[in-house]
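Long-time lurker, first post.

We've been arguing in lab meeting about whether flavin mononucleotide would sit comfortably in this protein at all. Half the group thinks yes, half thinks no, and nobody has a model to point at. So I'm putting the question to the forum: if I give you the sequence and the SMILES, can you give me back a predicted structure of the complex? Inputs are below. Any interpretation is welcome too.
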Amino acid sequence: MDKPVLQVIVASTRPGRAGRAVAEWVHGKAVSSGLFEVELVDLAEVRLPFLDEPHHPRLKQYVNAHTKEWSATVDRADAYVFVTPEYNHSYPGVLKNALDYLHHEWQHKPAGFVSYGGVSGGTRAVAALRHVVSTLKMVPLMEGVIIPFVPQHLGEDGTLRPSDVMDASADAMLGELARYSGVLGAMRQPVA
Ligand SMILES: Cc1cc2nc3c(=O)[nH]c(=O)nc-3n(C[C@H](O)[C@H](O)[C@H](O)COP(=O)(O)O)c2cc1C
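Top reply:
Settle the argument with this. Predicted structure of the protein with flavin mononucleotide, as tokens:
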């Protein structure tokens, strides 16, 4: 049987961001787990404009090539990991824009969160994000990774130096993502 496709979605886009290093660490862990086909989806590379579709996304009447491409990308996943910083006690607007573009593509798939920031480790960002992913009918997982004071976890080469807790949390999250993606696949079958 084919492995489920897991997308690791990088929510921060600014030059000098920590997000890409955090995402590459998660991506490596997901590949090593052997549980998934893993894709890194970097919103800095996707480069969506502010939502510019004339119709509600539930109608799937996309007119723009960038939306059709984004739809095809998100659609092929069976599970997501959102790698998000905390910006002003929430998650980046770039991620909200990327979520708002689509509707059916997100549904009935599990979502894990890897958050980082200052003392809160991005937990306020994830609290806000859970609400939105639930509205899009994703299933937000309890297991996730919290990285407080993220600069302290970046090596001189810019790669992430995880603590034991971060490693164990990522393993737990990936295990649950695999379990949920298997079960929720049935939810995405057409109703007879
Ligand atoms: C616009 C902005 C707002 C921020 N707001 C918060 C915040 O509310 N809480 C927090 O813990 N860190 C906050 N920070 C610090 C970031 O979490 C930290 O700089 C992190 O590295 C940002 O992720 P990035 O490097 O991937 O962009 C903020 C940073 C920026 C740029």
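For your lab meeting: The chain has one domain: 5-188. The mean pLDDT is 97. Whichever side wins, do check it experimentally.
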